[in-house]
Design a protein that fits this description.
The chain has 260 residues and is mainly alpha-helical. It is built from 12 helices and 3 strands, in the order ααααβββαααααααα. It has helices spanning 2-27, 48-53, 55-65, 71-84, 118-123, 127-142, 151-179, 184-200, 204-208, 211-218, 223-237, 242-258, and strands at residues 95-99, 106-108, 113-117. It has a 3-stranded mixed beta sheet, sandwiched between helices. The longest helix is centred in the middle third of the chain and has 29 residues, at 151-179. It holds the Pfam family Peptidase_M48.
Amino acid sequence: MLPRVILLLAVLALVACALRQLYLALWSFPALRPDQMEGAEPQTPRDDAELESGAFLHRILTEGFSHEREPWALEQARRVADRLQAGRPDDERFRVEVLWTSEVTAFTGPGRWIYLSRRLMERCIHEDAVAMVVAHEIAHHDMGHLDASSPLGWMVSHRMHGPEYELQADAHGLNLCLAAGYDAWRCLHLFDVLEAHALDAGARAAVFGPEDAMDAELAGEAVWRVDLRRWLHERRTGYPPLRERKAALARAYEAAAATP
């Protein structure tokens, strides 16, 4: 058994190395944006420190997509960031960058930046839902999910523990929102927004889980086989289904609220 585990880890390490090289190769091309002139110098990291600190990613994203000029979006991002981080020292705070992109997304990486797409902000009825997005990304840093000693280490760790990391970030993120005075149920509306977007894109598995697992359950297959299908799907995608994530948070909040 042990040799197989070692072999699996070796394969994962090789795949991670290949992905890192692909990442660097992709970033060596000029950013594809309207104001990028043909023949411009390719964007590359100035040094390893810029790459590993997240400064290179921040430079690329802000130069290519940080063109937000609408006061409401910039003010909302600033207000949410300030409210969630009211008790943090200035040098430990994260800055929220609003990206002008068609993707409905939010993410973070090395460094003290949170990236939030304007399209996601537009879909959130309540500011509380936007706060939940930002708090979730801050939580990844608070929980040490990005603390691997190298990009390779982070990629292997994320592949092995990604779904657990997401659930932990959900729970800690909601706690950050509650501490800042946001409404829990309005925060959880974020998952309705993400679900609607996923279904519009035909990504049913992102909402309900893998269809083969649901089919296996309906067919009466052994529980362990159904659970294995779900586990493999979550390792492959890095995320538990949205419905399950929202339900887990709702149960935890109701239990906490009912405690005297």
